[in-house]
Amino acid sequence: xxxxxxxxxxxxxxxxxxxxxxxxxxxxxxxxxxxxxxxxxxxxxxxxxxxxxxxxxxxxxxxxxxxxxxxxxxxxxxxxxxxxxxxxxxxxxxxxxxxxxxxxxxxxxxxxxxxxxxxxxxxxxxxxxxxxxxxxxxxxxxxxxxxxxxxxxxxxxxxxxxxxxxxxxxxxxxxxxxxxxxxxxxxxxxxxxxxxxxxxxxxxxxxxxxxxxxxxxxxxxxxxxxxxxxxxxxxxxxxxxxxxxxxxxxxxxxxxxxxxxxxxxxxxxxxxxxxxxxxxxxxxxxxxxxxxxxxxxxxxxxxxxxxxxxxxxxxxxxxxxxxxxxxxxxxxxxxxxxxxxxxxx
Length: 345
Fold this sequence. Notes:
Blueprint: H1 3-10, H2 15-31, E1 47-49, E2 52-54, E3 58-60, H3 71-75, E4 81-87, E5 101-103, E6 106-110, H4 118-124, H5 129-133, E7 137-142, H6 150-164, E8 170-174, H7 188-209, E9 216-221, H8 226-238, E10 243-248, E11 250-251, E12 257-261, H9 265-279, E13 285-287, H10 294-302, E14 307-310, H11 312-317, H12 320-342
Helix pairs in contact: 6-7, 8-9, 10-12
């Protein structure tokens, strides 16, 4: 039975029901080898980004395992890193009356964050132990429901940051497809202050609590124009944060919906190229959005990304996409290494 047939079968049900069924059954499907024919082990291709050693360049983007329930099961597909979330400090629910829709390898989903809350996710992250023990990297993506209240939003980011600081390998501040992605242009000073407070809180945790310096990435919204994207990248560097994740949060024609999948390809690739041309190796870029094949994953790396993340591609094309992407990037990286070696005196 092909993966394409399985996807057609699951399409009978609503996307929400299908997603819930997969999460509820993924552990035994992977552990008992039921889905083994639909993926393969990728080649070894370690890379160091943000001071962390990633087993390979391909990760699972935030959103698929939002509450951190199935990290090691997803890790069984060969991901080098898994980013859970978006997690909010307290439980949060997206706007009612809007459901997921999918067509033409694109998913439309409600803006805002759906989370069971930081405390519940911390308990769920016991699911990550096996994945991390075999070298997998765990990221936690945190967000806040600002509701027009800047102080409340900052406080929520900092609460979530403190809770997860010693329980993951890196954190991501999500400024994508929530209220924060609309603040650029009208409230730049507030977003700069958010990055400042996060940077200062990390330093406080290091000095007062003896914690390590945890890498922190910032997730950029594709809704931001080029000038705003470059401005945000400047702020990330200025406040000593570690990477930029590009991109998500492109709005649909219906303002209450964001898009994921093939509709993001052109915008996401352009943004990676824009940032790499400006900052080069000074600011690591992690590329997500519209990666539906190994060749598309490779195109992000060729444009300057250090890592890639997939989400919708896993839904539409199955877990074989992980190894296809790792292998394509690894082959290209080997040619680059060989080319550099041949130029040495």
